[in-house]
Amino acid sequence: MQRNIILIGFMGTGKSTIGRKLSRTFGYPLIDADQMIVEQEGCSIPEIFADRGEKAFRDLETSALRSLSRHSGHIIATGGGIIGRPENRRLLRHLGYVVWLVASPAEILARTARNTNRPLLNNDHPEETIRNLLEIRTPLYRATAHLAIETDQLSFDEVATGIIESAQYYFSSHE
C-alpha cells in the first residue's frame, strides 16, 4: 500500500496551504499536481484552458496522476476538478489516504475572490458557478475520500492536526 496523503476539494479549500503544513510536519515531500502540470507544459493553467480547453487540461491531470502511482511517502495536493473522471477517482484512492477539504460556497468565494488564476470562476457570477460545480462535484468528492474535514471554522493548524491523526490511524490499520 502506498503511504501518500492526497488532498482533494474545491478550489479555495486550502489544499496547497494544508499540503505545505503537512509536508513540514510529516517530513513528506509535497507534490502539487497543478504545479506539476504547469512545469511540464511551460505555461499556466489559465493559458492551458484558453489555448487548449478544459478537456486537454483534464487529460493532463489524468496523466499526472498516472505518473504519481510510483510515489509513496508524499503529500499530494490536487486540483479541484480532478475527481470528475472515474479513472482519476480510482487512481486517487490507489495512491493512498484521500482527504476531502470542505468549505461553504461563501467561504470559497471569499478565499478565491482576488485570485485571477481560477479560469472556471472568471465570469460575472462566480458564486453561482461555485454552487453549480459543488452540486456536481460533492458526491464525487464524497465517493473518493476516506475522510472529509469541514474547514470553514478551523485554523490550518487544526485541519493539519486532524489529518495527521486520522492518517496515522489509517496507515496503521491498513498495514
Describe, in short, the structure shown.
By secondary structure, the protein is α/β, with parallel strands linked by helices.
Descriptive report:
The chain has helices at 15-26, 33-41, 45-52, 54-68, 86-95, 105-112, 126-144, 156-173; strands at 4-8, 30-32, 75-77, 96-102, 147-150. With 175 residues, it is an alpha/beta fold. The protein has a single domain, classed as Rossmann fold (3-Layer(aba) Sandwich). The chain has a five-stranded parallel sheet with strand order 2-3-1-4-5, sandwiched between helices. Helix 1 packs across helix 8, helix 2 crosses helix 4 (54-68) and helix 4 runs parallel beside helix 5. The longest helix is centred in the last third of the chain and has 19 residues, at 126-144.
